[in-house]
Amino acid sequence: MEINRQSGDVPTIEDLEMKINLVLPRTFGQKAMSTFNAQKALTIDGLNELHGSLKTCPTEKDLAEDPEGLKVDLMLHQRRALAWLMWREEQRPSGGILADDMGLGKTLTMIALTMKSLENIHDEEDRGAKEDSQSGAKWKGGTLVVCPASLINQWSGEIDRRTRRGKLSYEVHHGPNRDTKAKRLAKHDIVITTYAIVKNESEKEGALFNIKWKRVVLDEAHQIRNYKCQTSEAACRLAAKSRWALTGTPIHNKELDMYALLKFLRCSPFDDLQVWKRWVGMKDRGGEERLHTVISSIMLRRTKAELVEKGMMNALPERTWELIEVILSKKEMAVYQRILVFSKTLFAQFLYQHAEKKDDYRLAESLKSQEGPNAEFFKMRQKLLGLNRGEEVKQSIILVLLLRLRQICCHPSLIKNVSNL
Model pTM greater than 0.90? Predict the structure, then answer.
């Protein structure tokens, strides 16, 4: 689903309200009409607020200054994104979706946002203090980054490489020896953890849920696209002033994937499933325009091609392919052919076993025949059965043999002695 995010293309609020009036209730009972009118009023108010916020949205020419303590200079598109991020944190809901293409520096941009916010001395003074909330007293914390386990080192590495020593304090909240004290975690500028730990601590009311974070950042946020899963529900329970979703693919399969992100962002009233289904998730033209208005207000997405066209990013050289054919020597070809015949025979045995399991007797008899297209492998297969002692040929063995064929093309010494085959 491709969405144009230019504010000039967003429908006017008058058009939106006119099409909202065309939506009819499903039933006309007193209770149903009361619910319908309440949802309609909330939808109009929500669209008014989101649409109105676009008036103060930074333009593409508005670039934020690099934060102090950053070792590298931000690129133009990153400075533009930083200005947009800072603007979004002053809006309602505080936060949004950064959906730039992979490789455009979403991680570094979010680190820059954290450093920018720390330039306000009051933010640092309040860190580690307790505040009252509806669910009890919580410690005031910094930025919580939730990401897949494979990206933990990327986040910590970016902080180490791109920021001056001592400028940001961070804690990797991962592994069996992780800190379980909310007070200590709250004192760090950035805490990096995984979706699995958030889910686990949600069930136990762990340290992450005893902190009111300044911001929560979900990296690879499409991990919560199923709003019914426990990971998504746990992420939505985290207490935070600002919420950010980083993903290059905000919509994977259907529009309902976007609802999960709006639920996390607490973008009222569209974080209510009934409101979403009736007023935004509809397949008609009015529903698409309302969804477009919501997304245009809270999401920033740029592609590499788009940035190159606008001159905000240098184009990479065009990729070219050159095929160079190498002729194997006589001995190398002999080794290759021996492994090739063995691989084909083993694959024939794999098919034979698979056919037996599936009761495909016609295929099984064909593979056993001394005549026909499989005849050249019959003798090898008989020897193979003796070597393999009737053991089942697994799919992994076939893949290993394909690897061996590639290694022979590089150099025969990369494989073991095959003289016994």
Answer: no
